[in-house]
Every structure is written in C-alpha cells, then in structure tokens.
Amino acid sequence: MKKILVTGSTGQIGSELIVRLRDLYGRDNVIGSARKGLEADFAAGPFEHLDVQDAKRLAELADKHQIDTIIHNAAMLSATGERNPQALWAVNMGGLYNVLEVARERDLKVFTPSSIAAFGPGTPLHNTPQNTVQRPTTIYGVSKVAGELLCDYYYKRFGVDTRGVRYPGIISYKTLPGGGTTDYAVHIFFDAVKKGKYTSYIDKGTFMDMMYMPDAVECVIDLMEADPAKLKTRNAFNVSSMSFDPEMLAAEIRKHIPEFELSYDVDPVRQAIADSWPNSLDVSDAREQWGFRPKYDLAAMTVDMIKGIR
Ligand code: AKB
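A: This is the predicted complex of the input protein with 2-amino-3-ketobutyric acid.
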C-alpha cells in the first residue's frame, strides 16, 4: 500500500485506523473521506467529501490522488439498518459495488470489512467455522454475505485484490460506535466509570465475539500487507479475540470498580439480532494464512478501557 483512500474515515473504526495508517505510510499518502455533514479533521491530513454511492466522485478521487488501495469502511450497521433497510442496501451494496468497479478499472487493492452479522440461524454457534451456513436475518447481514460473495467474484473474475475480515463488536474509548448491536460493550465502560451503573439492552447469557480497537486496526494492516500467495480466503476472515456476555464483562469491570451495578432493560430488536449471531468464532484460517495474533484479551482490554476513560 502506497497511496490509500479510506472511506468512512470519520466512523468508529475509520477514524482510528486512519491515524495508524498515516503513522505508517505518511500523512499525505492516506486520504480520508466521508459524507458532507460528518465532522472531518482537515488539519490531520488530506480529506475529501465523498458519498460512496456517487461512483463518479469516487473515480475522480482515485485519479486525483493516484490511489493504489481503497480501505472501504463506509457502511450502515445492524440496528440502524433494521430501521431503514432500503437505505442500508443502497449505501452498503451501492458503495461496495462502486468501490469494486473503480478498483477493477484501475487495478487497485481493496479492503472491506464483513461482520459476524454475516452469520445467522443455522450457523454453528460455538467455534463458528470460516466456511459454514450463512443465512442472516438482518438486512445488514444480508448485505455482508452479498458483499463477501461480490469480493470473491471480483477476485476470481477480474483479479481485483480484495481482502476482508468479519469484524466482531469493536470496543474503544476513543471513538463511540453508532447503530450497532454490540455497542453495549462500549457504553457499559463509560457508564461504569462515570455513573457506577449501567442498564443493558442485551440480556445476560448472550455471548458475542468482540475485539479491542488496537487489534481491529492492526489486523487490517497485517492482512493488507500479507503475501497474496498465502491468502486462500478472499471473502472475509473470521477474526475475534474474546467472547463474553454482559455478566462476564460486568464481573471484569468490578475488579476495578467494585460497586458497579448492572441491570437490564432488554431491547427486543437488538436482542433478536444478537441471538442470531455466533457465540464464538474459529479464527484459525486468519492465524494460519496471515498471522492474526490479537494482543488484548478481556482482562487487558478492561484495564486499558477504564484507564482511558478516567
Ligand atoms: C454491529 O453490531 O452491527 C457491528 C457489527 C458486529 O458488525 N458492531
């Protein structure tokens, strides 16, 4: 990667990823982009307004900046998607299609994240394999399965160097998530530190995969720098570094904030989504093919989160 365009660079993952990319590849070699109206830090490095549904503008930016890689993060998440499925399809699928077409025409590399949402009922819940049943029940999940297949197709049919991971819930104290089902695992830390209590919209006993932001950022770089000959999987790799339910997370937080209280007010929409997702992923393909080695487990992440928020 020499000249990188990051879409959705003001979002939860995009805004932290771009900082690391600029450290590694040089400030002026990493172009941030987001829709007009989203807060952009123009002082931090080159930034362009881009709605990924606008194919012409995307192509113009690729040419203007002589891009060789697109890291395509712009997307709507699971809970927001259920409120407006039509908009999600237009943004997630329209955006990815435009990115792949621009990449095909210019021989660019593409990273695009899939998600644990690409799984659904019928998928093995524990140690979910890389290749298994994918019958999601959310529009977000449907867009992720379609996106994985589209990336696979562009790789096989046109030779576009497409790479991706299935992100679990991503936890950070620097940027807040928006519109996801796993967001509770971020909010709980802020409320624990600031109020000493949290009301969870996800029920006890609901396990989901999670990852700490520094590992989520590093895995994009590791995957994009991996030797293409070693990558057998072109749809999206299972990645995860921990799996917990709200009770387990609360118990870890109580090691640092003993008075922390957890209560529940379950949201049926997000609970149904969480219930349809795996409890824990098998990440062995990512380990074997490009050396995925996350650094943070639940204990290490909890220490860092609480320190960061305080
Ligand atoms: C969401 O909850 O929608 C996302 C995801 C797992 O893709 N965090």
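The radius of gyration is 19 Å. The longest helix spans residues 85-106.
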